[in-house]
């Protein structure tokens, strides 16, 4: 199974955000164990670094990003990808760009806590971490 992770799931796991961290950490464990193939968009890497750097410090942010890059495969983003996101039916640009990335890797799911993203009309299902755990376990 191939999954693209939205920023909110990864930040929940890395920043111990309650009450979301448990499920977020569990889905990352699935990627670590090889039970799923996980991806992250390259723009998510910078966004997550920024949040962790502001929440904690540079060392913790760098360590977390290094660990993420060992668990998840980065998806490069081109100008064409950005143009596709702009014309997408998904109105939130960040969500649209993640969906473009998910399409590039033929993902089975995008995992996100964003309920609006979950309800969006998309080519690939957007599900919560809890739902992904239900599917995988």
What does the model show?
Strands 3-2-1-4-5 form a five-stranded parallel beta sheet, sandwiched between helices. The chain is an alpha/beta fold. It has helices spanning 7-14, 21-33, 42-55, 58-71, 79-86, 93-104, 115-119, 129-136; strands at residues 2-5, 37-41, 73-75, 109-111, 126-127. The chain has a single domain (2-136), classed as 3-Layer(aba) Sandwich (Rossmann fold).
Terminus-to-terminus distance: 13 Å
How many separate domains make up the residues? 1
Under CATH, the topology can be stated as Rossmann fold
Number of strands: 5
- Element-by-element helix/strand order: EHHEHHEHHEHEH
Number of helices: 8
Low-confidence stretches: none
Q: What is the name of the CATH class?
A: Alpha Beta
Give the C-alpha Rg.
14 Å
Keywords:
137 residues, alpha/beta, Rossmann fold, 5 strands
Write the layout of secondary structure elements.
Layout: E1 2-5, H1 7-14, H2 21-33, E2 37-41, H3 42-55, H4 58-71, E3 73-75, H5 79-86, H6 93-104, E4 109-111, H7 115-119, E5 126-127, H8 129-136
Parallel strand pairs: 1-2, 1-4, 2-3, 4-5
Helix pairs in contact: 1-2, 1-3, 2-8, 3-4, 5-6
Summarize this structure briefly.
This protein is of the alpha/beta class and 137 residues long. The protein has helices spanning 7-14, 21-33, 42-55, 58-71, 79-86, 93-104, 115-119, 129-136; strands spanning 2-5, 37-41, 73-75, 109-111, 126-127. 60% of the residues lie in helices and 12% in strands.
